[in-house]
Amino acid sequence: MSDRNDIDALIEMMARLPGLGPRSARRAVLHMIRKRALLLQPLADQMARVAQTARECLNCGNIGTSDICAICASEKRATGLICVVEDVADLWAMERAAVFKGRYHVLGGTLSALDGVGPDDLRIPALLTRIETEAVTEVILALNATVDGMTTAHYIADQLEGRVTLTSLAQGVPIGGELDYLDDGTITAALNARKPV
Amino acid sequence: MSDRNDIDALIEMMARLPGLGPRSARRAVLHMIRKRALLLQPLADQMARVAQTARECLNCGNIGTSDICAICASEKRATGLICVVEDVADLWAMERAAVFKGRYHVLGGTLSALDGVGPDDLRIPALLTRIETEAVTEVILALNATVDGMTTAHYIADQLEGRVTLTSLAQGVPIGGELDYLDDGTITAALNARKPV
User: Fold this and answer.
1) Are β-strands A55-56 and A165-168 bridged in parallel, bridged antiparallel, or unpaired?
2) What structural domains does chain A harbor?
3) Using only C-alpha atoms, what is the Rg of chain B?
4) Would you place residue B186 in the very low, low, confident or very high pLDDT band (cuts 50, 70, 90)?
5) Is B17–A6 a contact, with Cβ atoms under 8 angstroms apart?
6) ipTM > 0.85?
7) Pairing of strands A63-64, A103-106
8) Could you say which residues from 8 to 37 on chain A have a Cβ atom under 8 Å away from some Cβ of chain B?
9) Is the pLDDT of residue B1 over 60?
10) % of chain B surpassing 70 pLDDT
């Protein structure tokens, strides 16, 4: 239908977003068109604004709206303590828990021999520089518990050995988790790391 | 984090779309920011364009970019044959099947005593007018097989009785459907409407 070209193009673009497919993109676009003054136009404006202002923090790799992100710029965050994460989404998840008061370093992925990702493709050199310039004493490795994540954690641990205190997130039963639904690996890790009550 | 206000606002707006929640909205926004030149800015532009141009067809209620939609304006579509659907999404689904060559009429919902939706809240008066002005001979009721959909179909059938040929979509086993997974109502309908081979 020739006069739906604009709308079809929008549906196609929305369908490319992660978590949306053609069907949900159609539903979302119809919903937005029905509320175009309340939803579609403001969303378009906000996207244009973010497209202009969003940038990676030059220091840690977090995504924000300034060259140095709010966390790196904050005087309230402890210096000398860096939490290493794979991805900005992981950093945001840590921030939602609102328990970590140090700073972050976003690697931007994991080492992967298969995909040809080496240390220089990640922000590992920048991490090594920060260890010196920010007088870091502890590095927390908060990488995902996948094969690639653990390979990367080992590589970073090798590089930093003897220079800083290295820690990693505890593994065990998630809060609210039921044993019956946990995988064997998690149960094994939780049992091995059992604590006196 | 003060400098994420713009990004947080975008995530909140995306999370209001049907089919997206806070988590998938965050993922989508991060994905868009990473590809801002390829995805975020073009999407913003396209949304702004659609917000300006999208409108309801004055004749049938379809959503397009002109006052009379491409289907109503097309000379290739049979006149005198109208398919009545609840929603624009239903019309688009019918068009994807690309088998119906008549025109449509979008009701914009169903009659519902509970929600206080009466005939005048839907595009039923407009349908009655079209029956006369377009010299309609057949009306296909393609309403959803829900209680409200069937109530609405009955109401329209009452209004049109004797004035046009009334038909409705066949009910039965969906193509590719397995009997084992079908509900009793569908099996009953399919059995009652059985055809000689």
Assistant:
1) unpaired
2) 2-53 (1.10.8), 69-168 (3.40.1360.10)
3) 21
4) confident
5) no
6) no
7) unpaired
8) 9-10, 13-14, 16-20, 24, 26-33, 36-37
9) no
10) 98
